[in-house]
Specification:
Blueprint (H helix, E strand, L loop, with lengths): L9 H26 L1 H24 L1 H4 L2 H39 L6 H16 L3 H26 L5 H13 L2 H18 L6 H5 L10 H33 L3 H7 L12 H29 L8 H16 L10 H14 L4 H15 L1
Helix pairs in contact: 1-2, 1-6, 1-8, 1-10, 1-12, 2-8, 2-10, 4-5, 4-12, 4-13, 4-15, 5-12, 5-13, 6-10, 6-12, 7-10
Length: 368
């Protein structure tokens, strides 16, 4: 099962994709879908379908990412690396701040949020590390716990769900103009695509995946649909328990759902702490994966040598400082169109490499 020579199996890759995408989406995207009702959940479903199509395109272009300098030239390779690294660093700062807020409020009362963030970042960095195989083995170990925990949470919410909430949502959609429903639908499609932007990092990992008798496209698309179905199930649970208005009014509806869910018979009074541990465990893997890709992209583009300790320390400190900044900033919408444009450009210019290198050289000269 476990691989050799710095490679991972397709199963390990599939589980890594699910773990990276699932917990952030289940935490935030599921609440958006429930508060927007049936158009919101339909938008999430279509959004994950589009992400699956994008994944197929990324897999077919994976070979180009293994020889970026011959494809784009040195200036183009440097420009692309800087854009990917900026996305990873700012996303890491945003995610760490949200995780530190969660830990400081629910798990470590009295500990400053900044100190919580530093501990979480250290755990993510040393836990996941920069080794491909170590991350693959960690995904194998965490996957059944995190996915199993989410499934148990969803099953335990079934007795609390009210069928009248779905009836009210259906009546609301029928009474609202088609244009308004279309806006809710499109907004959630866009949110899903933005939430799935980390899948743009997939081509950098494909060179470390073992070649098997089946195509890598199947496990990649399967991981997207697994994530999407779990997120939609979370939206349905929130809608059934709280309704549209209740979900929209709650500051963090998923945490309320966790707090109100327990095992039959009153076993374990603070069962919500267990759900919180599963959520933080998945978010830690996501954060550690961002650190992993910072090292991997820098190594593949020649910005630094493999296993550079100074780069890892600098990345951790930079993300921590970003997380300590004012909470008015975050990763804004805009990275998904950029990465989509890059893949489309690669696809169209695959047979015209000289033209692509000239374009990258011109862009690099203007920026640098």
């Amino acid at each position: 099962m476990f691989s050799e020579n710095d490679r991972i199996s397709q199963r390990q890759m599939e589980r890594q994709i699910v773990l990276v995408l699932l917990c952030p989406a289940f935490w935030q995207l599921a609440a958006y879908g429930a508060s927007d009702g049936l158009p919101g959940m339909a938008g999430i479903f279509v959004g994950y379908g589009l992400l699956a199509v994008w994944c197929i395109y990324l897999v077919r272009l994976g070979g180009l990412y293994c020889r970026l300098e011959s494809v784009m030239g040195k200036a183009g390779k440097l420009l692309l690396a800087v854009m990917y690294l900026c996305y990873l660093l700012f996303l890491g700062g945003t995610l760490l701040r949200r995780m530190a807020e969660l830990a400081a409020a629910y798990l470590t009362a009295g500990v400053p949020q900044e100190l919580c963030g530093l501990f979480l970042l250290a755990a993510a960095g040393f836990g996941v590390g920069s080794e491909v195989q170590k991350r693959g083995r960690l995904a194998e170990a965490l996957y059944p716990w995190i996915v199993g925990g989410i499934l148990i949470l969803l099953l335990l919410t079934v007795p609390q769900m009210h069928f009248s909430s779905f009836e009210d949502a259906w009546k609301t959609e029928k009474s609202v103009e088609i244009v308004d429903n279309g806006i809710l639908f499109g907004r959630n499609v866009w949110r899903t695509l933005e939430n799935g932007t980390p899948i743009a990092l997939l081509p950098f990992l494909l060179g470390h995946v073992q070649k098997e008798h089946r195509s890598v496209i199947l496990p990649v698309t399967r991981s997207i649909w697994k994530t999407g179905l779990l997120v939609i199930a979370g939206s349905m649970a929130l809608l059934g328990v709280f309704g549209r208005r209740g979900t929209a009014a709650a500051q963090d509806p998923l945490l309320l759902l966790m707090a109100g869910t327990s095992l039959p018979g009153g076993f374990l009074e603070r069962f919500d702490i267990l759900w919180m541990a599963f959520l933080l465990m998945g978010l830690l893997f996501t954060l550690g994966s961002l650190l992993f890709y910072v090292s991997l992209i820098g190594e593949k583009t020649g910005l630094w040598k493999p296993q550079n300790l100074y780069v890892r320390i600098g990345t951790v400190l930079f993300i921590w400082l970003l997380s300590c900044a004012e909470s008015g900033w975050s990763v804004r919408y805009g990275y998904f169109p950029f990465f989509l444009a890059i893949t489309v450009l690669f696809g169209f210019c695959q047979k015209h490499m000289k033209k692509l290198r000239l374009v990258c050289l011109a862009l690099g000269s203007m920026i640098f």
